Amino acid sequence: xxxxxxxxxxxxxxxxxxxxxxxxxxxxxxxxxxxxxxxxxxxxxxxxxxxxxxxxxxxxxxxxxxxxxxxxxxxxxxxxxxxxxxxxxxxxxxxxxxxxxxxxxxxxxxxxxxxxxxxxxxxxxxxxxxxxxxxxxxxxxxxxxxxxxxxxxxxxxxxxxxxxxxxxxxxxxxxxxxxxxxxxxxxxxxxxxxxxxxxxxxxx
Length: 204
Description:
Layout: H1 6-21, E1 24-32, E2 41-49, H2 57-74, E3 81-86, H3 99-102, E4 107-116, E5 119-130, E6 133-138, E7 145-148, E8 152-157, H4 161-174, H5 178-184
Parallel strand pairs: 2-3
Antiparallel strand pairs: 1-2, 4-5, 4-8, 5-6, 6-7
């Protein structure tokens, strides 16, 4: 889930300890190919703070610099690529088993790698975790479904009023204002775009 390809999985093994030193978790890594002949690829890294699942633009910049420093030295990717470090966003992907505990009560779309009850795609309310299964209250079903987490290839929260409400409550609890939150969701593609004199905002 955090990785889609063998190359992604190798990169996560590299990036996890780098993020750890910054107090961050890697949520997802995707190395996507260019549709143009000879074009550069995009390396997308989603990350969040270990403490509260948020991240700001300064932290994205620091992680981008740390990853870039390693990549420049080790050169694990052949060809040209553009590094993009970002927050998961409010309608975030659910890539780890613990995400289905953290975001219990919210609506999500889930895709499996095999048929279950005649289909691969589901939509329902996340109802937590039981052992290595995710629990989901599916539309039109009376009983909560238990789905092996290993079967899940993609899962993402659905942007709706309930999700927006929870996001607003989380910002209020941290004391964030709207502008700061909007900034924290920006992608960070080039560390030169951030003024080195800009003060870090590690604590919100």
